[in-house]
Amino acid sequence: SLALVEILERGGRGVFHVTDGGGAASRLEFASEALRILGLTAEVTPVPTEGFHETARRPPYTALDVSATEAFLGRAMPGWRATLRRYLEEGRAGALPSVCP
After folding, report:
1. What is the pTM of this model?
2. Please, are residues 35 and 42 in contact by the beta-carbon 8 Å criterion?
3. CB–CB of 83/20 below 8 Å?
4. Burial environment of residue 43 by CB neighbours within 10 A (0 to 12, 13 to 18, 19 or more)
C-alpha cells in the first residue's frame, strides 16, 4: 500500500490501521455491494460469526479505525466502495478473468 510506504517515509511510529475509509462494512454488505457493482442478481444469505468454523476465536466487531492514519497523513483514506468498484472494473478488463465475467 502506498499509505504504508508514506507512513514509513515520514517516520511514523506506533500502530496505524491502513484500510479503506468510508465507514465499516460487514461481509454481507461487502458481498452485496460487489454484486450490485457487477450488475449481478443473487441472494446473499447472512451467516452469523458462529456459523464460520474457524480455529481462532474472533470478536463480533472487528472494524479498523483509520482516524490516526488519516490524521498522520493529513488526508482521508479512499472509500471502500470506490476501491471495490475500481478493483472489480479492472477485473472485467482482464486482470481477474476467473473472478469476474
Report:
1. 0.72
2. yes
3. yes
4. exposed
